Request: fold
Amino acid sequence: MSFAEDGTRADASGLDAVEPSGPSAIPRPEDVDAAWCLRFLRAIRDVSFATIGADGLPSVRVIDVMAVTEGRLYFLAPRGKEFHADVMRERFVAVVGQTPDLRTCRLRGPVVRPEDDAQRALVDRLFELNPGMEVIYPGESRYICDVFFIEEGEGEYFDLGQKPVFRKPFRLGGLPACERGTFLITDACIGCGTCAEKCPERCIAPGAPYKIDQSHCLRCGICLETCPAQAVTRR
Ligand code: SF4
Ligand code: SF4
Reply:
């Protein structure tokens, strides 16, 4: 961790941003964790940030990931933009980035805004790490930007380009990985094999009950819809 540990006071001189994971590199499954996924998002850099607007409806914008450390993802928001207002009001964002070869990483979690007296130095540090920002916000105009970061949340790396697909959930902030949205086979399974036969990823193994390999599941729901015993549930 490069910042002070109190979460909101941040020393920009300590922002030793980690190198991004190259999106060109296919990771080994065991290497995919929260820190790796942050680097992956930084490598993609231009990612989509979703917020809830003042009208209660969702909005999405492409925002640069300005830096990541082992446990934080940093971004900027100029104070005049609705995106800034959304972030300040909701203090929560959802982020997703995808490479051309269909590898996706998503993350959602609460947003922290470092205190006012830390902002200018942080802006300077992020501009130093991202020299192109000077073209957009030359000179003092850079200080219209506020710095935010995410250091808690849940997300998932998903490679749709592999066959079978590969996915791995993660938690940022040390909590167990989230398994929301997964399909499970219960003890109501009668072992007919229909789900394994229909599954496009061939990721259901025989057993009592049959078992889904979650790391290769597409989450398409075919097993749920075709099971004659209603033995498949969604978590
Ligand atoms: S289709 Fe349903 S009952 Fe048949 S093996 Fe799959 S989970 Fe079990
Ligand atoms: S949700 Fe789709 S990919 Fe996943 S186990 Fe069921 S049929 Fe297979």
In short: Residues 12-172 form a domain with the Pnp Oxidase; Chain A fold (CATH 2.30.110.10). Residues 1-11 have pLDDT under 50 and may be disordered.
